[in-house]
Amino acid sequence: MKMNEGVEWALHSCVNLCFIPGEAVTAKRLAAFYNLPTAYLNKQLQALSRAGILTSTSGPKGGFQLARRPDKISVLDVVTAIDGPEDAFRCTQILKAGPGADPKADYRKICVISQSMRKAELTYRRELAGKTIADLVRQVETSYPATADDTRNWFANLKS
């Protein structure tokens, strides 16, 4: 399974917004933090806005903010907003074309490969659903205590 690189960018942006609460941050400023292309990051941020994860405000003091508390935004919410809700594995029931196939069978349900892939995907989705942006922030703050202050200072010094 391959995720869109926008998932990584979106997750980092959400964590960074937690370090500067109450401030709307432009896509340009968020992109500059990691030297990312502004237009492409903005596309990801707009997807997060459409999903209700971020709010977007236009105007001179505009930008993006979290729309919900970080403990109410799961990593799966972000992944789904960026990559969509479709399953990574899509059974096309190729067994129907094989010798001795039953044309009436739903091979998505009885195929051991389909079952294995769906079980793995469910495990993956449960893991992502069980971790929130607040959990990520706590882990960053525990592992790298200076990060929150460094991030706030960086954004405070970049006012464009």
The tally of strands reads 2
- Count of DSSP helices? 8
Main structural class: mainly alpha
* Element-level helix/strand string: HHHEEHHHHH
- Characterize the main sheet: 2 strands, antiparallel
Biggest sheet: strand arrangement: 1-2
Share in β-strands = 5-15%
* Terminal Cα span: 37 Å
* Integer-rounded radius of gyration: 20 Å
Instruction: Indicate the low-confidence ranges by residue numbers.
Output: none
| Fraction of residues in helix | 55-70%
Mean pLDDT: 93
Apparent shape: elongated
Describe this structure in words.
It is a single chain. The protein is 56% helix and 5% strand. The chain is built from eight helices and two strands. Helix 1 (5-19) crosses helix 3, helix 1 (5-19) crosses helix 7 and helix 4 (75-83) crosses helix 6 (112-129). It is elongated and about 70 Å long. The model has no long low-confidence stretch (mean pLDDT 93).
Summarize the SSE layout with pairings.
Layout: H1 5-19, H2 27-34, H3 38-50, E1 54-57, E2 63-66, H4 75-83, H5 107-110, H6 112-129, H7 133-143, H8 147-157
Antiparallel strand pairs: 1-2
Helix pairs in contact: 1-3, 1-4, 1-7, 2-3, 4-6
Name its key features.
160 residues, mainly alpha, two-stranded antiparallel sheet, 56% helix
Q: Can I get a quick summary?
A:
This protein is mostly helical and 160 residues long. The protein has helices at residues 5-19, 27-34, 38-50, 75-83, 107-110, 112-129, 133-143, 147-157, and strands at 54-57, 63-66.
